[in-house]
From TrEMBL:
Keyword set includes Magnesium: yes
Identification of the protein by name: Phosphopantetheine adenylyltransferase
Keywords for this protein: ATP-binding, Coenzyme A biosynthesis, Cytoplasm, Magnesium, Nucleotide-binding, Nucleotidyltransferase, Transferase
Site positions (Transition state stabilizer): H18
Cytidyltransferase-like domain span: 6-135
Cofactor needs: Mg(2+)
A GO BP annotation: coenzyme A biosynthetic process
UniProt gene name: coaD
Top class in the EC scheme: transferase
Binding site for substrate: T10, K42, L75, R89
Protein family: Belongs to the bacterial CoaD family.
Length: 167
């Protein structure tokens, strides 16, 4: 039986922190499905198609069977459709834990056949958040420590297109 896990997120943009969780999560399952979603509470810098292409490019060299799939539904419904028994989530800080703990509890109530597994972010990557990467870039800061060179180029190009603040 194939062990399938889902790693959901907006990945706007995909960061080194995300990549760390993807690499490690891929070792825990036979197939890792990266679910790229829209989040109405976030205003994305990149379209869903752009984010999916970005994630696909970034995971191309990662060991394991990895699929990148868009979804716009309840996470547990998506996990069920993909045949997943595990949700992979990354934790950076105590604030993440409180939110993720609550979500895991709700998800367990929705679908008790799917477990949530938390992976602690690498200590060097814990402060990285897509929201902060975008904010730094929009204000002209260097984001090279937080994303791959290709993602850095994508973000810089998008900021040039939409206009940098503080200049």
């Amino acid at each position: 039986m194939t062990r399938i896990g889902v790693y959901p997120g907006t990945f706007d943009p995909v960061t080194l922190g995300h990549m760390d969780i993807i690499r490690r999560g891929a070792k825990l399952v036979d197939r890792l499905v990266i679910g790229v979603t829209t989040n109405p509470s976030k205003s994305p810098m990149f379209t869903l198609d752009e984010r999916m292409a970005m994630v696909r490019r970034e995971v191309a060299g990662v060991a394991g069977e990895i699929h990148v799939v868009a979804f716009d539904s309840l996470l547990m419904d998506f996990a069920e459709r993909e045949g997943a028994k595990v949700i992979v989530r990354g934790l950076r800080a105590v604030a993440d834990f409180e939110y993720e703990y609550q979500m895991a509890g709700m998800n367990q109530q929705i679908n008790p056949r799917v477990e949530t597994v938390f992976l602690m972010a690498d200590v060097a990557l814990q402060p990285i958040a897509s929201r902060l990467v975008k904010e730094i870039a929009v204000y002209g800061g260097n984001i090279a420590k937080f994303v791959t060179p290709a993602v850095c180029e994508d973000v810089v190009a998008r900021v040039e297109k939409i206009g940098r603040k503080g200049s």
